[in-house]
Amino acid sequence: MTNIITHWRDGAIYDGTSDQWADVTNPATGKASGQVALASTGDAAHIIASAKAASQTWRETSLARRTQVLFAFRELLNSRKEELAHLITAEHGKVYSDALGEIARGQEVVEFACGISHLLKGGHTENASTGVDVHSKRDPLGVVGIISPFNFPAMVPMWFFPVAIAAGNTVVLKPSEKDPSASLWLAELWKEAGLPDGVFNVLQGDKTAVDALLQSPDVAAISFVGSTPIARYVYEEASRYGKRVQALGGAKNHMVVLPDADLDLAADAAVNAGYGSAGERCMAISVLVAVEPIADELVARIVDRTRTLLIGDGSKAATVDGKEADMGPLVTKAHRDNVASFIDSGEAAGAKVVIDGRQVQPRGEQDGFWLGPTLFDGVTPDMDIYTEEIFGPVLCVVRAKSYDEAVALINANPYGNGTAIFTNDGGAARRFEEDVEVGMIGVNVPIPVPVAYYSFGGWKRSLFGDTHAHGTEGVHFFTRAKAVTTRWINPAARPEGGLELGFPQNV
Ligand code: NAD
Asked: Signal sequence: where (predicted)?
C-alpha cells in the first residue's frame, strides 16, 4: 500500500488541493514507499495563514506554559526516538544507529530551548539618567519558515524550531521531498506535548512551496539549510521580500594531518568522518590533507580500516547476528549516479583510485542505491573531485609539503563550513585555529559540530547571512530587540519635565 504523505495544519493532517506528487523511495530497496504532496501556492497560503492566526495567542502565552510544552516534547521525543529513527532509515538510508545519533543531536537543541526563560531575559539599568530607567527585551518575530535538506530530516529542523517556538514564534516547516515523513511524526509529537494548534505546521513540496514562503508578507524570517546555489537564491529572494534570513549552504571540509599526529586516531577519524552516513553530511570530511612524510603510512591505515566496512541495508530489521551495516545506500538513484560519475571523472583526471566504491558488494537488495567507500590519492586542486561538493562516500587525499601549504588550500577554498587538524603539537593547533577561515574547527575531532548551546554555522559560501543556528545566535535570530527608556514622575521630587528643545544631556 502506498503511503500518502501530506501537510500538517492547525494541529491535523491537511491534504491540500494540489495534484502534484513526488515518489518517496526506500534507498536500500530502490522501491517507492510512498508519495509526498507537492503544495500549490494556494496550499502554502492556507498553511501560512494558520501559522499567522496562531501567532498572537502563542506569543502572549506565558513563558512558564511555553516551557512546559518544550519539556513535554523533550520527554516524548526521548521515549519514542526509536520510531523516528526507523522512519529516517527507511527514507534516507542512513543506518539505524546513525539515525538515533541525529535525533540525539536535535534533542540537545530542544533541551537548550527548555531554558528559554533565562535566554530571553533582558537587561535593566536604574537611574541611567536622573529618574530615568532603561530596560531591554526580546520579542518574537511572528511566523518563521524553516526549509530543510534531505540529509538530516530530523536534526536540521530541530536546529531551529525548538528555539523559534520557545521564543514565541509560530513555524512553517518545509522539509525535503526526499524524506518527508519525519516532519509529520514531529508534528504529531508536538500535538501530544500540548502545543496549541497552528504553532507548528508542515508544508510539503518543492520550489513552489519554497517560493511561497520566501514571498509571503506574513512570513517574517527564513532559516534555510541546503546546497550553496539554493542557499544563495533563498538568501537573495527572501531578503528582497524584506525578511531576516540565515541560509546555510554546502561544504568541502578538509582534515589536515600533521606528521606528529597519532596516525591510528587520524585514520579512524578519516574513515568515520569520510564515510559515515555515506558522506551525506555537511560536516563530512571530503578532503584529507596529509602533510608529508606521513601520507603513504596514513593511506595504508585508512585502506585497512575501509576494507572492513560492511555496506548494506541499515534498518534494524536488516541486522544480522547483531551486526548492523556500517554504511547504507545513497538517498536516490540520481544522486548515487551523480556521485559515481565523479569517481569516473577523478579517475580520468589522473587521481589514483585506491578503493573503488563502484565495485561494492552490499548486504541488501540489488536495486538499492549502493555505492561503496571510495578513496582517491594524488588529488590536485584543479580536479573536479576536489573543487566540487560530491556529497557521497568519496575521500580525496591531497599531499602537502608543509603546514602552510595545507592552510593555504583551506583558505583558498570557496567553502568554509568545517575543518579539522590532527596533531600532538598544541602550538600548531592553536595557530591553525587562528589561521583558517572556517566557521567550525576540530582539533583531533573530525566532525566538530558544536553542542547546542554554541552556534552552528560556516563561513564564505557555506552560510549566507550573519547568524548561525541555535545557541545564543539562534535566540537572537528568532527574536528582535527593544530598548525601553522609562521615566515615572516622582511626586516628591517635583518639578519634573520643563521645556528643553535640545538633545537631553546625561544628567
Ligand atoms: P537542496 O539545496 O537540493 O535542497 C534543500 C531544500 O531546498 C529542500 O527542502 C528542497 O526542496 C529545496 N529546494 C531544492 N531546489 C530548490 C529550488 N530550485 N528552489 C527552491 N527550493 C529548492 O539540498 P539537499 O540536496 O536536500 O541537501 C544537501 C545539501 O545540503 C548539501 O549541499 C549539503 O552540504 C547541504 N547541507 C548543509 C548544511 C549546513 O549546515 N551548512 C547542513 C546539511 C546539509
From this structure: none
One-letter amino acid of 102? E
Q: What percent of the chain has pLDDT over 70?
A: 98
Average pLDDT over residues 119-138: 95
For 167-236, the three-class secondary structure string (H helix, E strand, C coil) is CCCEEEEECCCCCCHHHHHHHHHHHHHCCCCCCEEECCCCHHHHHHHHHCCCEEEEEEECCHHHHHHHHH
| 180 has pLDDT over 60 | yes
Residue 498: pLDDT band (50, 70, 90) is confident
Given the CA of residue 457, which atom of ligand 1 is nearest to it? 40
Note if the bond before 27 is cis, omega within 30 degrees: no
Q: For this structure, is 282 an active site residue?
A: yes
What is the grid cell recorded at 195? 502545543
Query: What pLDDT, in 10s, does the model give residues 130-149?
Result: 889 999 999 999 999 999 99
Q: For ligand 1, atom 43, which residue shows the shortest CA distance? A: 282
The number of beta carbons lying within 10 Å of the beta carbon of residue 432 is 24
Ligand 1 pocket, residue 97 CB under 6 Å: no
- Cβ 150 under 6 angstroms from ligand 1: yes
Distance between CA 377 and CA 306 in Å, rounded? 14
Our answer on whether the CB atom of 393 is closer than 6 Å to any ligand 1 atom is: no
Q: How far apart are CA 462 and CA 135, in angstroms?
A: 36
Catalytic one among 69, 141, 266, 282? Answer: 282
ipTM score for this prediction: 0.99
Is the CB of 417 inside a 6 Å radius of any atom of ligand 1?
Answer: yes
Judged against a pLDDT cut of 90, whether residue 279 lies above it is answered with yes
For ligand 1, atom 32, which residue shows the shortest CA distance? 227
Extended strands (E) in 331-434: 352-355, 374-377, 394-400, 415-416, 418-422
CA distance 23 to 5: 10
Query: CA–CA separation, 267 vs 69, rounded Å?
Result: 44
In the chain, the domains with their CATH numbers are: 3-249+462-484 (3.40.605.10), 253-443 (3.40.309.10)
